[in-house]
Every structure is written in C-alpha cells, then in structure tokens.
C-alpha cells in the first residue's frame, strides 16, 4: 500500500510540474490557444492522483496488489534499469554491435541465465547480425563506433 | 455493392505478386515469433516490428508486411494463451479460460486449430462486412465537422477508459498521463514548445512507438525481473498434444465461429470498441447456449467463439480507424502510427483520394489471415520450441530489439532514455493496476482531439456553445457520457469486471 501511495505521489508531482510548465505557454487562456489543453490534462492528473492518494484502496486493487507485490526482488529490476541506461549511453561510444553484445550478455546473466559461454556467443552474433542487417538491408544507420562495426 | 466488390478485387490484384506474398509470409513469421512470447500481444508485436517498415518506399509492401505481422501477432498471442495461460492482452483472456484447460487435457492441437480457423472464418466475415459498410460510413463522415470529431475522440476516450480499468480513477489517471505525453512538443498551430523542459529532442513530441515499447516491453521485462526469484519458468509442453480438429470438433465449432463473428464485428465498428467486451460476451453466449458441455474442463465452444469475436472485432475496429481516423484500441492506435509514417491520414479523405491503397490494405489483411492458416498451423511444433527459450534470453532480446526500434526511429540516445523512463513508469502502472491502453490512446488521440477542438473554437470565436449547437455533436457527446457511466453501473460492473487491456 505504501508503494501505491508513493506512486500516486509521484503522479501528483508530475501533474503539478506539468501544470506549472503549461502556465508559460502562450499568452493567455483563450479557448483556441495552445495553453488550455495541456493545462486541462495536467489539472485532471493532479485532481485524480489526489483522489487516488486520499483513497487508494478499493477491493480490486487490494486483490491485485496481493498478487503483484508478492515476493518482489528489488535488486534485479533496479540493476536492469542501470544496465539499460549504460546500454543507451554506450551506443554512440562503442558502436551498436559492441554495446549490444555487452548489454545482452550482462542482461542475460542478470535475468538468471547461467550459461555465460553460450550467452556470449548469442550476444556477439545478435549484435553483429542486427547491426549488419539494419545498415545493409534496411538502410538504418546505426552507430559504428571507433572500430567500424 | 458491386463497386465495392470490384474495389476489393483491385486490392487483391495489387497484393498478389510473388514479392508481396513473400513479404506476407515474412510478416506472419516475424509476427508469430514475437507474438508467442509470453505476455506480449499484437500491440507490442507491431510496435516492436514497426521500425522494419520505415524504410519502404512503397506503402503497399509495408502494409502487407504489417498485416502479416498483425495476423501473426494475434495468432501467436492466442497460442501462448492456450498453451501457457498467459494472455498477452485482455482480448485473449476469454480464450485462455477453456483453451488452457483443453491443452492440459491433451487437446492443445484442437484448441489451436479452432482458434486459427475461427479467426480465419471471422476475418472473412469481418472483411465482407467492412466492404459493405466502410464506404457509406466514409461518405457520411465527410459531413463531420471539427466539433463532431472532438466529440468522437471524447467518446473513444470515455469508452476505452471505462471498459479497460477496474477503477475509473486509475483509468483516467492513465488517460491523463497519456494526454500529457501526447502534448509534449511544438504546438503545430502556434509553434510554441510545450512541456519540453528545454530538451531539444522533445520538440518533435514523444513518438507512439517510444511509448508503446516503453510501457509494454520494458515494463514487462522489469516486472519479470522483479519476480525472477519467486517464479520458476512455466512448464512448456513438449507438444501441443492431441490431434487437429475431429469431425465432432468441427460440428461443435462452426456455430460459435459464426456467432462470435456476429458479436465481434459490431462492437469493434462502434467508436466505443475494444475487443474485451465482445470476447466475453461470446464466451457467455456459448456457455448459455451449450450448457451441457464440459465448461471449465476444456469446452471447445469457449475457444472457438471468443477467438472469432476477437478477430471480427478487429475488422470492425478498421471501420472507425479507416473512415474517421479514430483508433479504438491500443493495437489500432499503433496501426494509425504506421499510416502516419507514410504521411497518410486515415479519414474520409483517404477513402476518396487513396481508395486503392485502402482496399489494398484490406486485401493484405486477408492475405495475412490465409498465410497464417497455410504456414503457421502446420508449424506449431516450431512455435512451441520458441516458448522453450529461457526467459532470460528472451527478455534480453526484447530489450535489445525495443532499443533498436526506438534508436532507428530517432537516431538519438535521448529518446532511448525517454523510452526507458516510460518503461519504469509502465512497471509501476502494472504493479499498481493502472491500465495501459488509455495511455496509448491518450498519446495518439490527445493531439487530434485538441486540434479539432481548437479548430472548432477558432471558427466560433472561442465560443464553447459550438459544441452544443448541432444535433449530431450533442448526440455524440451524450453517447460519450453514457459510455463513461454505463459500464460502472453496479449491475453491469459485476459482469464486466475482467482486468485491464495490455
């Protein structure tokens, strides 16, 4: 329940930030102007997430929470988010093929695979083949990195 | 009628070339491959594979590939529902109830066959119905004004949000999050940047692919990661089991197929669509009409009916999507994005100006269905093997392809990071039971709603009475309010309570 409230709080904060940000849009509140729609949407988010915060628990949610929050192992998803951010940041630096191979190998290990040699082979093949297929056949320019792959 | 039939035949002749058939086969295979992954439905399948179609010069080839991907994604989704009881979207939940029981009792093949053939039969009926009503609706839609479109988008919001969430508050929280994401970027009418917080890359807005891949793929992967220690991999059956349809199975299946199609299409065609209600309605109908069958222990009627309803409802969804440009499900919203890639805006004008293209699309959806029956049903043992790939490798692969999709779309790391952030949000939404479909719909329909409202208001000189001055607009608004309230009437709510749409 604490988690649900915290998420509600984050949504409320997002709503408030968005509402404040829309106040600088345009130069007035005329109905056909650019400010009204995002202001209404963020106000809606503020009000509804406040309602959720005040009274988060209906029966359906309690039943769902019992199932969805049971036995959560937090380090894995947190580490996975870290890994993803690392992946995104290394794409341009290492090139697509290498960054993908490294990410895939580590992610597979993190998600519980215990055959590092097999995973390493899959990772390299995946990185090289997708990089090649997308740049040769589909004309999508993926970053090459310093070694041209 | 004859004219439409001729149009459809023209569509077929455009589709039927060796190259296009190859594309259809490729699409069906890719779609099934991704669609059979547990927890992944057609919406995510399309979002993941959409980038492949970006580089086609010719929209016809892209649509054929795309229609194959869609058909494959649907089929793959019902395969996992039946064999593993993990429906990738709520439209397959009804199928899973009896389908999984059939598979457990060694009748997996028969369940898969009745699902696939039922989808084909319903798809055929749906396409015939679409042929009949699409053009009349399109010619009616020409008369729609901006304020009517505004009311229609409200109707789509109200119905999808009210139908897919167990709580109105959480449903509308999801919707408003989607709307806000949709409003990010430079305002098209005034050129002002909104909600970009000074990040240049956000100027073009947040693409629907970024939102869909984030919410579905990254959200699902994080959810799986959080449960890793507590949940072993499902036991995947060596073989779907049993024989294909026996004579008795055919006899028991054909009526549910037809009834399912009859229930599914009208529900999909209303701009208050979605496939959840018709699939459950079909399930309930079959149960009522065949009370003596083995319900709860694998009654084939319970697979045949809902699967047909699901497929026919999708053909129905094409009516508002193609004639009005209004998507009424997450899958349809992503299809709209595919149109926009080719600078095509579905709506009455598309029917008039590019009618050839529209009928080609319809024909290619049909080809996808046939291809599926011809290629995939016999290959079922192969797809079952896909399910045996360890979860760790599957989800790492999904993350790689999701990242690739977003990166090839934008060429920017910023957008990849935005996608991951949306994925983290998707994880918490799943965890705390906030529905996903309203977010997708908000992103894609929000800007459309705003544009139409502002167009109407500009014409009226900022006078809100423009929304209440014509009977058509008022009727649409009243239906929107009804769509919002009716599913939450206590008596109905009990019958419609079936979780969220992915």
TrEMBL record, chain A:
It holds the Pfam family TctB. It comes from the Bacteria. Keywords: Membrane, Transmembrane, Transmembrane helix. The chain crosses the membrane at residues 6-24, 36-54, 74-107, 119-138. Residues 6-143 form the DUF1468 domain. This is Tripartite tricarboxylate transporter TctB family protein. It comes from Solirubrobacter phytolaccae.
From TrEMBL, chain B:
The chain crosses the membrane at residues 21-54, 60-77, 110-134, 149-165, 172-190, 202-222, 321-342, 357-380, 392-422, 434-451, 472-492. Residues 21-441 form the DUF112 domain. Coiled coil: none annotated. InterPro entries: DUF112_TM. It comes from the Bacteria. Keywords: Membrane, Transmembrane, Transmembrane helix. This is Tripartite tricarboxylate transporter permease. It comes from Solirubrobacter phytolaccae.
